[in-house]
């Protein structure tokens, strides 16, 4: 013990002897800085502003400005040729009191489509991301690319693939298989029937919904500290289900929140699927007519831009409300 104390005393003495003169006298030696390198200085803030300027300009031009113009046009009668004339709330009154297609078909179809396709696609994204996290890196990369690829597929390619499968012709893939098995006696018009069109739209949407939300959840799961799982098992965790509930989900809440918001936006904006599959806008008997199709119908076919702008504003408010609710549910109290 005496030897250890002697060595500690020697180290302290050497440390005090080798200490700079400034530290012995209580003075701190300052390193001179240039004005540009000062943290939080005016020049530093100006540099940050210059770097952000391209993004700010793009955000204002392609997002903020179109939203403002849509809100302004929603109070006008505009046919895209003559100058718009102010009509006040007439477009909104017409939308909710006179537009029977909107109230009887578009709103119910959009809500049904969103309630089924959105949550199913979201939970499937999480489940597939969790499964891939258990796979070695090589196969995981290939499988992740295969799952993510449909979200990158253009509408034309999607139309070619799925219209061939659900073709109403007897030689269509699904009809040919069912006729051969004796399940049906004649070809079914899958894409023109109100009994099947919405179901097919939901299937195609879920198939192509593994996009950025799926990738963000996969990266979040892969970056969870393994020591968290070890500590949880030492505290009494017994199976994989508890692992998901108590460790995985709490650890990737930001990624799950991002995936949920993206699922909401993509689901409410989905509209081209029904038109591309059925080949017409409006869809047959309005069975697959969503709010986006209604906007395109009045904006690009009937050229009632003011009325179409009013519908788009309603869609914007609806997406905002649902996104806020999801953020409230998924965000933690500390955020």
Estimate percent helicity.
Answer: over 70%
What is the element string, with H for helices and E for strands?
HHHEEHHHHHHHHHHHHH
Q: Structural class given helices, strands, pairing?
A: mainly alpha
DSSP helix count?
A: 16
Question: CATH class of the domain at 100-330, anyone?
Answer: Mainly Alpha
The CATH homologous superfamily name of the domain at 100-330 equals: MetI-like
Shape: globular
Estimate the strand proportion. Answer: under 5%
Strand arrangement, major sheet: 1-2
What is the residue-averaged pLDDT?
A: 81
**Sheet bearing the most strands, described?**
2 strands, antiparallel
Q: How many angstroms separate the termini? A: 52 Å
Number of strands: 2
* Unreliable stretches covering 5 or more consecutive residues: 1-28, 35-39
CATH topology of the domain at 100-330: MetI-like fold
In CATH, the architecture of the domain at 100-330 is Orthogonal Bundle
Rg over alpha carbons? 30 Å
């Amino acid at each position: 013990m005496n030897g250890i104390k002697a060595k500690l005393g020697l180290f302290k003495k050497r440390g005090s002897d080798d200490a700079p003169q400034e530290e012995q006298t209580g003075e701190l030696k300052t390193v001179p800085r240039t004005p540009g390198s000062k943290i939080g200085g005016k020049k530093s803030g100006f540099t940050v502003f210059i770097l952000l300027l391209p993004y700010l300009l793009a955000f204002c031009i392609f997002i903020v400005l179109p939203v403002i113009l849509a809100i302004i046009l929603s109070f006008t009668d505009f046919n895209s040729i003559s100058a718009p004339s102010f009509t006040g709330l007439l477009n909104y009154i017409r939308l909710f009191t006179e537009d029977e297609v909107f109230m009887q078909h578009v709103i119910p179809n959009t809500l049904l489509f969103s309630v089924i396709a959105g949550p199913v696609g979201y939970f499937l994204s999480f489940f597939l991301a969790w499964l891939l996290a258990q796979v070695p890196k090589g196969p995981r990369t290939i499988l992740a690319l295969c799952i993510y690829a449909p979200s990158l597929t253009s509408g034309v390619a999607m139309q070619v693939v799925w219209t061939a499968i659900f073709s109403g012709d007897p030689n269509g893939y699904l009809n040919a298989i069912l006729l051969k098995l004796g399940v049906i006696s004649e070809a079914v018009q899958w894409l023109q029937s109100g009994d099947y069109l919405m179901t097919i739209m939901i299937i195609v949407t879920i198939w192509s919904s593994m996009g950025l939300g799926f990738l963000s959840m996969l990266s979040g799961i892969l970056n969870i500290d393994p020591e968290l799982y070890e500590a949880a098992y030492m505290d009494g965790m017994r199976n994989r289900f508890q692992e998901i509930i108590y460790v995985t989900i709490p650890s990737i809440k930001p990624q799950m929140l991002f995936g949920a918001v993206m699922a909401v936006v993509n689901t409410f904006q989905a509209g081209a699927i029904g038109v591309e599959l059925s080949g017409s806008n409006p869809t047959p008997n309005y069975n697959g007519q969503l709010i986006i199709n209604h906007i395109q119908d009045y904006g690009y076919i009937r050229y009632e831009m003011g009325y179409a702008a009013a519908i788009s504003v309603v869609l914007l408010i609806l997406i905002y409300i649902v996104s806020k609710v999801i953020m409230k549910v998924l965000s933690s109290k500390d955020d």
